[in-house]
Amino acid sequence: MRREKLDPPIDLDYDHVLGPPDAQLTLVEYGSYACPYCHAVHDVIAGLRNRFGERMRYVFRHLPMADNEDALRASELAEYAAETTGRFWGVHAALMERGPVFSEDDFGRIAREFNLPSAAEHEPALAAARERVHEDAESARRSGVRVTPTFFYQRPPIVTAAWLAVRSGIAVKPDAYSWRQLIGAGALGGIGFTMSLFIAGLAFPNAADYAAAKIAIFIASVIAAVVGMIILYPRREEESESELPDETAVGCAI
């Protein structure tokens, strides 16, 4: 699991996205149709989407396994479907159901099942599909992805979301609490083990990588706890309740 900047960031007009654009949580997967671990988490992701509903959106990007021709063919087939019929997610699900090992005719069967046109008659679409797979693989490299599946997650910072809700009139900040206290609570929100360890277990099948991820999660949680305690530690002077933080201050505090 990673919470880093994607390169490039999510583009709703370009990426393959399931879920509303204003979802609270975004889960991005770099995956390969020939990877057994990607197939193992496919149903898990479906379960997460059912659980979170409109609060979650899911993005899939290609990272075909190296030196695996079927992995590349499967990714190109999914993108070819997107280019010619717009049925990416249907083909994506079919490839996940039939893999990770494909027979010689599996790709042809999926193409016929979804009525995909002959590639010989749509060479520009095939070329665009191949370029899209290549671009996804390059973006994985720039984003530091080493294995499949690798997940990135994005969510609005707690304090930023609260500040926007207050400024827009959706919510009212209780007078009993200051922005300093809300920022401190937001920092403490960085403490997290259960979901972080769960996603790390899916993303890092290798024992050594998973152990490193657990250490990183522990360190990040300790840092969040320390920062939260520093912010919440009582000050001698009273904070003015009338002062609202600007966007830069909120972002820096988080």
Defining key terms:
4-stranded mixed β-sheet; about 55% helix; Glutaredoxin; disordered C terminus
In short, what is this structure?
By secondary structure, this protein is of the alpha+beta class. Helix content is 53%, strand content 9%. It folds into 2 domains: 16-153, Glutaredoxin (3-Layer(aba) Sandwich); 157-253.
What this model shows, in words?
This protein is α+β, with helices and mostly antiparallel strands and 254 residues long. It has 2 domains: 16-153, Glutaredoxin, CATH 3.40.30.10; 157-253. Helices cover 53% and strands 9% of the residues. It contains 10 helices and 4 strands, in the order E-E-H-E-H-H-H-H-E-H-H-H-H-H. It has helices spanning 36-52, 69-84, 88-98, 106-113, 123-142, 158-167, 179-188, 194-203, 207-232, 247-253; strands at 16-18, 25-31, 56-62, 150-154. Strands 1-3-2-4 form a 4-stranded mixed beta sheet. It is elongated. Mean pLDDT is 84; it is low at 236-254.
Largest sheet: 4 strands, mixed
CATH superfamily of the largest domain: Glutaredoxin
| CATH class placement of the largest domain | Alpha Beta
How much of the residues is beta strand, in percent?
5-15%
In one word, what is the shape? elongated
**How many β-strands, per DSSP?**
4
State the distance separating the first and last CA atoms. 20 Å
Note the run of SSEs as H and E: EEHEHHHHEHHHHH
- Major sheet: arrangement of strands: 1-3-2-4
- Which whole number gives the mean pLDDT? 84
Query: What portion of residues is helical?
Result: 40-55%
